[in-house]
Please model this.
Amino acid sequence: MRNIVLLPGFMCDSDLWRDVAPGLGKIGALHYGNVFQDDTLEGMAERVLSEAPDRFVLIGFSMGGFVARVLTLMAPDRVTAVAFVASSAREYTEAERARRLQGALPGDRPRRASPGVALGLHPDRERDPVLLERLRDMQRRLGPEVRARQSALIRKDGYADLERIACPALVVACRQDRLRSFAETERMAKHLPNARFEVIEDCGHMAPLEKPHELAALLAGWVETSAPA
Model:
């Protein structure tokens, strides 16, 4: 059975994958990467590697995709395949980094959402009380220290680095993603030598919460056909 390592996004913990896990668990043993104790992508990647199986499929969501890129290049002999969900390899501008240090979510525009609205969700779900509470619960559990560490991450342009990833890759974009532009996610697939590109329709940034069963089916099908057992 394959080992599958899951990396969450900014201020998300393993609950992010709650509804995705049953589908993926049918094809592999799931492991949850620790991206909470370090303030660099390299530090996060090294910690995940230290706790991961010898060989594994790597799946990174949003911020986790940045870590997945660094980790795959760090240990290409251990990562059998890598998936990037609603992620990017674009460098953040100084203005974006300043907003993140002030507490904004990755990709937030200068205009802040009004209370009770999550820009990470599809516009039709941005006030969904169940999804909002799950997002808030994860943020409460992780707390201000994790937020500070993750906000301090420096993300340099990594599109050229993607060209050195030789293993099978999957890039998943979400059509109504307001935190990550469709173009920058699509661009990842164009730079990966062995990539498949898929789009989840009617979905905002938070695909594991909004479209978990569709995402699980997409990931499981790709793993079974592309990742060595």
In short: DSSP finds nine helices and six strands in the chain. The chain has one domain: 2-226. Strands lie at 2-7, 28-32, 56-61, 79-85, 169-174, 195-200. Residues 106-113 have pLDDT under 50 and may be disordered.
